Amino acid sequence: MSETRLEKYRKYRESLNEVKANSKTDVAEEMRRANVVTEKFNTTSTLPLDEVIGQINEEDETVSRRIVTRKRIQIAIVVAIGVLLVAGIAVFAYFAFRG
Predict the structure, then answer these.
(1) CA atoms 75, 77, 78, 79: torsion sign
(2) DSSP secondary structure, 6-66, as one string
(3) Which of 19, 46, 60, 92: CA 20 to 30 A from 31?
């Protein structure tokens, strides 16, 4: 049914030995040499820290402006609804209790 832990790890160790044997071939060594980064192939460049921090700060400012604008719009809408509700109640009270 199910294999025991010892059998499982024995098979695992055997597969590792096969991988080690395959990695010692000429093809594997050639692939390793091709993947080595040398000065000639190293073309990465780094950005100045000030430039990166400046980009981050600009993004933060635009996001915060959007949030502030949304918050102001929401507050204005809530205030307008409140004023209209109070005015509606006042008009209703005037006509209802005019007597």
Answers:
(1) positive
(2) HHHHHHHHHHHHHHHHHHTSHHHHHHHHHH---TTT-------HHHHHHHHHHHHHHHHHH
(3) 46
